[in-house]
Structure of Aldehyde dehydrogenase (NAD(+)):
Amino acid sequence: MQASLSLLPQTVSFLARKPKMLIGDRWLDAASGATMPVRNPANGEVLCDVPMAAESDVDLAVSAARRAFDDSAWSRMRPRERQNLLWRLADLLERDADMLAELECVNNGKSAQVARVMDVQLSIDFLRYMAGWATKIEGSTVDVSIPLMPDSHFHSFVRREAVGVVGAIVAWNFPLLLACWKLGPALATGCSVVLKPADETPLSALKLGELVLEAGYPAGVFNVVTGTGVTAGAALSHHPEVDKLTFTGSTEVGKLIGKAAMESMTRVTLELGGKSPTIVLDDADPHVAAAGAATAIFFNHGQVCCAGSRLYVHRKHFDNVVGEIASIANAMKLGNGLDPSVQMGPLISAKQQQRVFGYIERGRELGAHIACGGEQFGPGYFVKPTVLVDVAQKGPLVQEEIFGPVLVAMPFDDIDEVVRLANDSRYGLGASIWTNNLSAAHRMIPRIKSGSVWVNCHSALDPAMPFGGYKLSGVGREMGAAAIEHYTEVKSVVMNI
Ligand code: NAD
């Protein structure tokens, strides 16, 4: 299946030289010399080993970030220069886009072609969008009414200042893009960063580190520590010199990070799990809705925080829409993401594959009917795209995040019922409504408890639109102006003049 699929020479040489961690402007092994293997999920083979950071390595990285923030040219840099540097970084990503896409492919399992036009292009676009913010961070002047000192004149203003050293911890489903979602606003506002990529997917983050240095950022502005969540991630989230934590990952780990942050009142934003509904109203075009619902769940092999993993279809279209999604799923080509004709790659790991099969098995035991999929494929960590019907709204398949290509589908009869079902979840990240009735869409939007609502599309993200969750899906927002707010502190100044 994979013999004829070759990598670019620059990707091969990157993998061959045993990537190290970026601390300050030096590429280092872990002080202990410990390493961990990085695998290709399409075949389970080891691609390379990376350093496995201990607490002391994280400490070194945070110290480098602290120095960069407190003492260096970075803290004195003007907004225009921060803008130009970010733009330069985006240009370098563009130059190396094909290689970055290949790294995402071999390390995550996703299609290189899709990674080029989605993950890498969105990262470039996002950095350029954030470059624009560097020169637009504003405060305000305020006329105050302070009762003391009646004869005084006051000049009062509000400043926004960079929050400081940012500890960023990300998941494996969009390794480069999630890193850029943290890095962009941090570099636009003048923060410094220590990034801990996911255990499974450190490669594009290390390449990003190379590009940050090449762009000309001062030493320590961006540091990358590779290692496990329980050691390196925990050390970063408890570090007293970190001023802000920004996390993308599971709700379970997000709660740990939130608690660690509260101990020291470290600023924190959390982008967590989801169980997002796709809602097909009675007036929708069932073909359009079926194609949209299939993409909503199967894109990135279902490993998308806002994947449309719960499908609610008006009863009159239910059988048709489910049947069409099953046909789309059955026709999908699974395989190695280096093959441009492949439509779905493997899941990230054997553990994730077993977890997903565990849910499918549980569904069977609980009486669900499998409309398609439910099986393994190939030697890698593949799960065939799966649709389950006859599932209980209160059961685990509908309430828990599976994080794989598994859709649960249920019929409904009226709008009030589907709003109640859609909101009957601990999560609230995204939702899509499929309809040709503008007024029905507008009336539903305020009733849906989620951070994003899409109409006749799903997971439609843009750098200018804030993204984040209601309920257990998180705290704070990424992207848009909201991101700048989360990377700055507000300082009120009152001058008696
Ligand atoms: P995860 O929570 O297991 O791991 C995420 C990161 O946290 C990794 O870097 C990991 O090493 C680190 N980590 C693990 N334990 C830690 C600890 N005790 N202390 C500090 N760090 C620790 O999540 P995952 O399995 O990598 O990713 C899947 C999850 O991410 C899903 O729930 C998905 O919905 C979520 N996600 C959310 C968004 C969003 O924007 N809302 C985006 C992508 C993924």
